[in-house]
Specification:
Elements (H helix, E strand, L loop, with lengths): L5 E6 L4 E6 L7 E5 L2 E6 L12 E4 L5 E5 L2 E7 L2 E4 L10 E3 L7 E3 L8 H6 L13 E5 L5 E5 L2 E8 L3 E6 L13 E5 L4 E3 L12
Parallel strand pairs: 1-10
Antiparallel strand pairs: 1-2, 2-3, 3-4, 5-6, 6-7, 7-8, 8-9, 9-10, 11-12, 12-13, 13-14, 14-15, 15-16
């Protein structure tokens, strides 16, 4: 809401829903009744920069959503649940709708998944909505796409999608890199099954 992320705190018997800022020490609050804001308490910080969503994928190949260094797996519809739901009885949820910022529901009952995220890798052959991508151009005006530290150049343009191939032209000791990805008009990206055979070029 207005660039801030809110977490569901509780609901009353009178139908009032209480939301509060996800930042621990912030006093920002919003109370909603019948779809209307009836009370609002200001935040004590500027809204965070929202640049999209990030994912890794599980050992079984399922995409995991990263929010504030916690991991969520898709449950149903627009709902994602924390991967600690079984081990830690964590009831934290995320509502994720296209074009909107994620809504966090419930507190986590366990530490953040920083190490899992650091060692993880992005999902392949599945569409990733609202990814953290950066578009740049070469001196000759050729468009490039940067995603998770790798740079891709445009290969083929279709009516509703664009195919990209790794921009690492020079062959390394592992041979030429044929890693590919596809982007759609709605901003989603899908990585090909071929992995990069070199380290990423961006930090």
């Amino acid at each position: 809401m207005n660039g801030y992320r809110l977490r569901l705190e509780r609901s009353s018997n009178k139908g009032i829903v209480y939301w509060r800022c996800v930042k621990g020490n912030c006093r920002g609050r919003v109370n909603i009744s019948k779809g209307k804001i009836i009370k609002k308490q200001p935040h004590d910080h500027e809204p965070p920069d929202y640049v999209g969503l990030d994912f890794i994928y599980s050992q079984r190949g399922h995409p995991l959503l990263i929010i504030d260094d916690y991991l969520f797996r898709h449950n149903r519809g627009h709902y994602w649940r924390c991967i600690g739901c079984t081990k830690y009885s964590c009831r934290s949820r995320v509502i994720l709708k296209p074009g909107r910022q994620p809504w966090c529901i419930g507190e986590h009952t366990h530490p953040q998944e920083t190490e899992k995220i650091r060692c993880g890798s992005p999902p392949v052959a599945v569409w990733i909505p609202n990814p953290k991508v950066i578009f740049t151009e070469t001196e000759r005006g050729r468009q490039l796409l940067n995603f998770r530290g790798y740079t891709y150049k445009k290969e083929t343009t279709f009516k509703t999608s664009i195919n990209w191939i790794c921009a690492e032209d020079k062959e390394n000791r592992n041979g030429a890199c044929n890693a590919r990805c596809v982007t759609r008009q709605d901003g989603a990206i899908k990585l090909g099954r071929r992995r990069h055979n070199h380290s990423n070029t961006l930090t």
